[in-house]
Amino acid sequence: MSKPEQPNVLKQPLPRLVARQPRGFVDRSSPDIAATDRMLAAIRETYELYGFEAVETPFVEFTDALGKFLPDQDRPNEGVFSFQDDDEQWLSLRYDLTAPLARYVAENFDTLPKPYRSYRSGWVFRNEKPGPGRFRQFMQFDADTVGAASVAADAEICMMAADTLERVGIARGDYVIKVNNRKVLDGVLETIGLAGEEKAHTRLVVLRAIDKLDRLGPDGVRALLGEGRRDESGDYTKGAGLPADLVDHVLALTGAKGQTAQATLANLARVVGASARGAEGVAELEEIASLVAAAGYADGRVEIDPAVVRGLEYYTGPVYEAELTFEVKDDEGRPVRFGSVAGGGRYDGLVARFRGEPVPATGFSIGVSRLLAALKLVKSPIVTDAAARGPVVVLVMDRDQVAHYQAMVARLRAAGIRAEMYLGSSGMKAQMKYADRRGSPCVVIQGSNERAAGEVQIKDLIEGAAQAAAKAGSIADSAEYRAQRLAQFSVGEDLLVEAVREVLARHGG
Fold it and tell me: Where is the Aminoacyl-transfer RNA synthetases class-II family profile domain (predicted)?
């Protein structure tokens, strides 16, 4: 009796997954990673020059440690990515690098030197609506001083921000570090009746509205201070509900910048009126202006600007933003300003949440992706030089000589040269195309004739491409192109390493 036919499961097509990214998340290519690494190294060198040291905190924190980042404690996933562990404790992906630092300092307070100067970089996550230039995962690079109440610490942070931008390739005159003081805004809000805990939500709406001034302009901010605003997509944002006269008073603050620091400070003193807290903020700004001038940074690098407020509620004193001032073109060719790439301020209450006593702190954060995009626009060497060359590729001309080709690769690697042997199954033309796509500076070619003569052929792909472009009109066909063997030369196999090094040195490798 014949056995029943078994079903052939291979006849059933497997369901195909759709390759797609979650909204607000991006992949990064090798050139971007290389450029980012170069930029981070330059930032790190500047921070360390100022005496800051590295620290690293985890991606995940207890949700309650993030504090005021949570707009609604009954909905812990609002604004942050949160989940419960097996102990039913709420955990969240960090929203920024500041709140985790506050937790770290509080936890290690007795063993850390005070003031404690630290820097850290890493990914942060925001469960918000993504859009152009707005991501749910992005990298920040922070520097903070904890334990220094003097605004000299704030002035130093601003000067370090200026030095950092120049270190990565932003020219002096193409940026400005703008400084304000949250106490000044508190004073203005106090004078219009928005003091007290019961007005905390309205104050936060006002803060976030003013923080959008560079993006929305005065009319957009006026709408958000009033009844609300509908954006281009049709989404409606409820406003602070202030009457028109109070809106005018708030906007008077943002327009208080004068021709000089002293003129700005005088304007601010008039806007805050009789508010003691506002006057304290003006006095702190005056001290920062004096310190900046004494260090030589009042030459347009660091300025007092009342329009800077920063949208987060935890700031308690000086706040600052690093703004790029050069123009770029949008998709329709219209000139636009690049805007802010970094910001921060004083947050004297964050560590106190854990310790129950005041702990002064100040710091700033660089938006890594945004700064990298700016460096590409200005063609900073940090980015252009980081467009890393691919490895030297040893072609496989004879399949029975793979071990010999691999020995060549091993010699190159032992000399510190990035190298690989072609591992595919294609012929020479496809191998050359592969090397081009890898960005290889040169390839090593050895067929049976070269091997018998104890030689290798080295083709300089960069020089070859340049020569081909120069001769483009004079070469009749591809056969003539191949016959000319542009930028290709022979050397003894024992001189392989030295010859490859010469090619790399020729192109800055």
Answer: 38-391
139-161: average pLDDT: 97
DSSP state of 25: -
What is the spatial distance between Cα 469 and Cα 465, in angstroms, rounded to a whole number?
A: 6
Helix axes of 368-377 and 30-49: crossing angle, nearest 10 degrees: 110
Q: What's the longest Cα–Cα distance across the chain? A: 105
Q: Please say whether the structural domain 30-384 has been given the CATH code 3.30.930.10.
A: yes
**Average pLDDT in the chain:** 87
CATH number of 392-506: 3.40.50.800
Pairing of strands 302-304, 236-238: unpaired
Segments of the chain assigned to CATH 3.40.50.800: 392-506
Q: What is the pLDDT of residue 483?
A: 45
Match 């102990």 to its residue by tokens: 87
474 pLDDT higher than 80: no
The answer to whether 91 and 109 have CB atoms below 8 angstroms apart is no
Query: Which tens digit of pLDDT belongs to each residue from 22-79?
Result: 998 999 888 889 899 999 999 999 999 999 999 999 999 998 888 754 444 444 456 8
CATH 3.30.930.10 in the chain, residues?
A: 30-384
- Among candidate residues 418, 502, 426, 422, the one with its CA nearest the CA of residue 458: 502
**CB atoms inside a 10 Å sphere around CB 75:** 10
**According to the 3-state scheme, what is the secondary structure of 208-267?**
HHHCCHHHHHHHHHHHHHCCEEECCCCCEEECCCCCHHHHHHHHHHHCCCCCCHHHHHHH
3 state DSSP class of 52: coil
Asked whether the predicted pLDDT for residue 387 surpasses 80, the reply is no
